[in-house]
Design brief:
Helix content of chain A: 40-55%
Shape of chain A: elongated
Number of helices of chain A: 14
Strand order of the largest sheet of chain A: 2-3-4
Shape of chain B: globular
Structural class of chain B: alpha/beta
Largest sheet of chain A: 3 strands, antiparallel
Distance between the termini of chain B: 31 Å
Radius of gyration of chain B: 19 Å
Radius of gyration of chain A: 23 Å
Distance between the termini of chain A: 40 Å
Oligomer: heterodimer
CATH superfamily of chain B: Divalent-metal-dependent TIM barrel enzymes
Chain lengths: 262, 295
């Protein structure tokens, strides 16, 4: 910073951010003008979060979401100059917020929203097919799987895939079906739900995974070798590696197979 | 309808809602302008669209977050992303605003999320010259810097914005992006609202060779007694069109852009606005050529 702290730029920022009438008076700015900047700030923040976290904004009444945006703006002001990147800590913010006592699935829904949002702008990666040869040439003990960076696997106690689809599926019947499933799951004894985000081309997709698929992928994504991941699901009769591999390639989950640990 | 050689380049701001239109409609404008920050991602559909647009159109990258007038340095991470985009798109113009965006709250660097005005002083001129020099050197390109609309003003200012920008360009080699609607907004908000006079004074205070781009936009009418908010939600106003005529007379065939950011119209409406700009510029430039020819 080039000048003393109490320069006119800091005075203006303080007037906009502090929202205290006394700060406004001290700083000598026109209240109407400051009010426009405050409204713009809140509107930009609201727009940004509603784009990055569409499910959260569907789940909450507009006055509640507006209040959350306001609180989040105060606790995590933007720092990167790109509203699209603002919101990385929104999931943690929700976890620590009292609203999660009433709606405990909100943080996981937010995490899912955020991964989809990041997937939209993530690097374009397609499977490096020649690396498939490693499966024939090497033992699974020496093979690791490098996933497409837009692939994420989330484990949750809540039916977040169904909650998302209940609000965003393009087909109304599917939406209603997902809503029913989500409601049923929320009323049942909690169990682990695995959700995967992936990007076959440009549009991120979301799907439920079986427990064995979820554990297998999570193990690989944590850097374990193929052998270690296969060991983990060796007693799961519903898991067949060859079947998983074909689907993984079709869905553009794998970037390449590697002989070295990442 | 495409431009003939030496005619003014006419463009429109491209927003997400018009992605399909731009890729499927016949070419009716000469260039497209996008907000740089919307394409900072490493991949995905938006960047793919921009790359396809670039194959057909000249592209201008208009940044909104750099805050060239900030007393704090622009973060390197921001500039690196802008540079990567610039190298990918190879824009024919790169622009930013004469404003500040970076500051501190409770000891933490924050981004204001808005284009905040600066006091027009020699101290701030020096700061902004340093920032512009740094950015131009980092990007390896000259910038075009836009006058901003404002809702507060600083008692500290003793230069007019036009004087400030003219000196900035003189010292840095940057050029000016003249936003005529922003002059109109400030005229209503801080002067007597005589837009014609404000625009004339502003234009006459700028050197003839200093303007490299013109922005035209419209904004919603305020309630009585309220400040005008530059929301880019309406067609260009008559006063701004008149100001555009003056600008073309003074600065010549300067690339001109129609900006429309909220309450977006259908694509043909936007194109009609662009065509109106082309007709006005063509008429002025043809008359000027004719006047030169008969002298």
């Amino acid at each position: 910073m080039r000048a003393l702290f109490s320069n006119e730029q800091q005075r203006l920022l303080a007037a906009i951010w502090d929202e205290e009438p006394s700060v406004l008076q001290q700083n000598g700015f026109d209240a109407q003008g400051i009010n426009i900047y405050q409204r713009n700030l809140l509107a930009n923040a609201q727009r940004a979060l509603s784009i990055s976290f569409p499910t959260i904004f569907e789940l909450l009444d507009s006055d509640i979401s507006a209040s959350l945006v306001h609180q989040f703006l105060r606790s995590s002001p933007p720092s990167q100059g790109d509203w699209g990147q603002w919101g990385e800590t929104f999931t943690t913010f929700l976890s620590n917020h009292e609203i999660s006592e009433d709606y405990p699935y909100l943080p996981d829904c937010a995490a899912l929203d955020w991964h989809i949002h990041c997937g939209l702008h993530g690097k374009d990666q397609t499977f490096e097919r020649p690396s498939l040869q490693l499966l024939s040439d090497s033992e699974p003990e020496y093979i690791t799987v490098i996933f497409n960076q837009n692939v994420k696997v989330i484990s949750s106690q809540y039916p977040i895939t169904e909650i998302l689809q209940a609000h965003h599926h393009s087909d109304e019947i599917q939406r209603k079906g997902a809503m029913k499933k989500a409601q049923t799951a929320l009323l049942s004894i909690p169990k682990e739900h695995w959700t995967m985000i992936y990007r076959p081309e440009f549009q991120p997709q979301v799907t439920r995974l079986s427990a064995s698929e979820g554990n297998f992928m999570h193990c690989l994504m944590s850097g374990s070798t193929l052998a270690q991941a296969l060991d983990m699901v060796s007693s799961d009769h519903d898991f067949v590696f060859e079947k998983w591999l074909i689907a993984a390639i079709e869905r553009n989950l794998i970037y390449y197979f590697s002989k070295d640990k990442p | 309808m495409l431009v003939k050689n030496n005619d003014v380049l006419i463009g429109v701001g491209l927003r997400h809602a018009h992605f399909t239109d731009i890729l499927t409609s016949p070419k009716q404008v000469d260039f497209i302008e996008v907000h740089s920050e919307n394409f900072f991602g490493e991949g995905g559909a938006a960047l793919s669209v921009l790359n396809q647009v670039r194959e057909q159109y000249l592209v201008s990258l208009h940044s909104t977050s750099m805050g060239l007038g900030s007393l704090f340095d622009i973060p390197k991470s921001y500039l690196s992303r802008l540079k990567k985009l610039t190298e990918n798109i190879d824009p024919f113009l790169m622009s930013e605003h004469a404003c500040f965006t970076w500051g501190q709250q409770q000891g933490q660097l924050i981004h204001s999320g808005d284009l905040l005005p600066i006091a027009h002083t020699y101290e701030n001129l020096k700061v902004m010259c340093e920032q512009v020099d740094k950015v131009q050197s980092f990007l390896g390109r000259h910038l075009v810097i836009e006058n901003v609309s404002a809702y507060v003003k600083f008692d500290e200012s003793y230069l007019s914005e036009a004087e400030f920008l003219a000196k900035l360009c003189q010292h840095t080699g940057a050029k000016i992006l003249l936003d005529i609607n922003n002059i109109a907004v400030n005229s209503i908000n801080f002067e007597d609202g005589n837009i014609t006079k404000s625009v004339t004074d502003y234009i006459n205070a700028l050197p003839v060779t200093s303007v490299a781009q013109i922005h035209l936009a419209g904004c919603s009418k305020p309630q009585a007694g309220e400040l005008v908010v530059d929301d880019h939600a309406c067609p260009v106003s008559d006063e701004v069109w008149q100001g555009y005529q003056q600008a073309i007379k003074r600065f010549g065939a300067v690339p001109t852009l129609i900006e429309w950011d909220s309450d977006l119209p259908e694509w043909p409406v936007l194109i009609n606005e662009a065509q109106k700009a082309r007709d006005i510029a063509d008429a002025i430039l043809t008359r000027s050529s004719y006047a030169c020819a008969i002298q």
